[in-house]
């Protein structure tokens, strides 16, 4: 049986504790042909050192989802500078002497390039050096089921017109529960308070189904069709735009309920602080992918409704930005 190669890209920024729990769950998966590429996005803490210490077996991971595994430590870490990653300089023959669960690539970016920009460095490196059939973007604040990748690949390989697949994602901890659905596929809304939303269907929906987009928290794309994210978005929207592009190419976007991931919802967004760059990215996303009329509608409706949240959060800079955006439409 042939197992297509999957390069798993995990982006870290000042979040090594979440990252090592994610890594420990990934190194327990049953799928036999994968790479782990951790991209440190210019962290200002000791993330790089702590991730290496984890790989050496010096940092124990505690999780309610699994028992810590001592048998696959140490994990060989191949450190790659941003410049070498961009140029595709890497000792692949040495790397491939190690088993899949005993090796890790750690790319050290010079700065924080945002979600798309940081992931793109990892994606381009993987495509130039590892030649995977699939790229899997995985948030560092997730924990995966041991068979999650088997299920994704099985569905992805079932139809050559499938461009993107993603798992059913549960809250890591929702009022003490880990069986509450956070994401089960996304929808696009041409006229709504927000241009897109996620589905949270019941457990009765167990079959793979067509959706309009997959969250970047856990997204696997076929490298025949997709090779990059739109780095104009600092945080958010790039995954939705990828779904729109797939649909316009006549490709299928599939949610796979039998593939399960748990997500610490809000961890990444809290660090990003939903800042002006993220909001501006949303408006740029609507402007590029929707009609002028829809764009004007989004600016107006968000100018009226979103400020309430910003006022409650005492974020007057965001309120000022929205007011300026509204004036530009007059």
What structural keywords apply?
37% helix, 330 residues, globular, alpha/beta, two-stranded antiparallel ribbon, 11-stranded mixed beta sheet, Spore Coat Polysaccharide Biosynthesis Protein SpsA, Chain A
Explain this structure.
The protein is an alpha/beta fold. It has two domains: 6-272, Spore Coat Polysaccharide Biosynthesis Protein SpsA, Chain A, CATH 3.90.550.10; 291-328. The protein has helices spanning 16-26, 47-56, 82-87, 92-95, 114-129, 148-156, 238-248, 267-272, 276-289, 292-312, 316-328; strands spanning 6-12, 34-40, 76-81, 103-108, 134-139, 142-144, 162-171, 181-183, 186-188, 196-198, 209-210, 218-222, 252-263. Strands 1, 2, 3, 4, 5, 6, 7, 8, 11, 12 and 13 form an eleven-stranded mixed β-sheet that branches. Strand 1 (6-12), helix 1 (16-26) and strand 2 (34-40) form a beta-alpha-beta unit. The termini are far apart. Belongs to the glycosyltransferase 2 family.
What is this structure, in a nutshell?
GO terms for molecular function: glycosyltransferase activity. With 330 residues, this protein is of the alpha/beta class. The protein has eleven helices and 13 strands.
Q: Give the integer mean of the pLDDT values.
A: 89
Just give the CATH class of the largest domain.
Alpha Beta
Reported by name, the CATH topology of the largest domain is: Spore Coat Polysaccharide Biosynthesis Protein SpsA, Chain A
Characterize the largest beta sheet: strand count, sense, and whether it forms a barrel. 11 strands, mixed
Radius of gyration: 20 Å
Number of domains: 2
Supply the CATH superfamily name of the largest domain.
Spore Coat Polysaccharide Biosynthesis Protein SpsA, Chain A
Count of separate DSSP helical elements: 11
Secondary structure class reads alpha/beta
CATH architecture heading of the largest domain: Alpha-Beta Complex
Q: What general outline do the C-alpha atoms trace?
A: globular
Through-space gap between termini: 61 Å
Approximately how much helix is present in the residues?
A: 25-40%
**Beta-strand content bin:** 15-25%
Describe the oligomeric state of these chains in a short phrase: single chain
Low-confidence stretches: none
């Amino acid at each position: 049986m042939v197992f297509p190669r999957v390069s798993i890209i995990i982006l870290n920024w000042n979040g090594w504790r979440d990252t090592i729990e994610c890594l420990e769950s990934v190194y327990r998966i049953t799928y036999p042909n994968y790479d782990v590429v951790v991209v440190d996005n210019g962290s200002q803490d000791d993330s790089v050192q702590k991730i290496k210490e984890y790989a050496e077996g010096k940092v124990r991971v505690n999780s309610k989802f699994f028992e810590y595994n001592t048998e696959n430590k140490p994990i060989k870490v191949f450190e790659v500078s941003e410049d070498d990653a961009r140029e595709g300089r890497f000792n692949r023959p040495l790397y491939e002497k190690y088993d899949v669960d005993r090796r890790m690539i750690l790319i050290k970016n010079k700065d924080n390039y945002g979600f798309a920009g940081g992931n793109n460095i990892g994606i381009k490196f993987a495509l130039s050096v590892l030649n995977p059939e699939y790229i899997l973007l995985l948030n560092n604040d997730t924990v995966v089921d041991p068979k999650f990748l088997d299920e994704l690949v099985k569905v992805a390989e079932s139809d050559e017109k499938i461009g993107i697949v993603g798992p059913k994602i549960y809250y890591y901890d929702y009022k003490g529960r880990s069986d509450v659905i956070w994401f089960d596929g996304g929808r696009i809304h041409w006229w709504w308070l927000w241009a897109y939303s996620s589905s949270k269907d019941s457990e009765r929906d167990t079959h793979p189904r067509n959706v309009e987009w997959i969250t970047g928290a856990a997204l696997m794309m076929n490298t025949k069709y997709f090779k990059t994210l739109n780095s104009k978005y600092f945080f958010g929207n790039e995954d939705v735009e990828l779904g729109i592009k797939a649909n316009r190419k006549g490709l299928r976007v599939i949610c796979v309920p039998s593939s399960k991931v748990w997500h610490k919802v809000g961890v990444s967004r809290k660090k990003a602080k939903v800042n002006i760059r993220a909001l501006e990215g949303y408006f740029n996303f609507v402007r590029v992918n929707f009609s002028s009329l829809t764009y004007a509608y989004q600016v107006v409706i968000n100018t009226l409704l979103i400020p309430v949240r910003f006022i409650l959060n005492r974020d007057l800079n965001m309120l000022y930005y929205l007011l300026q955006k509204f004036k530009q439409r007059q």
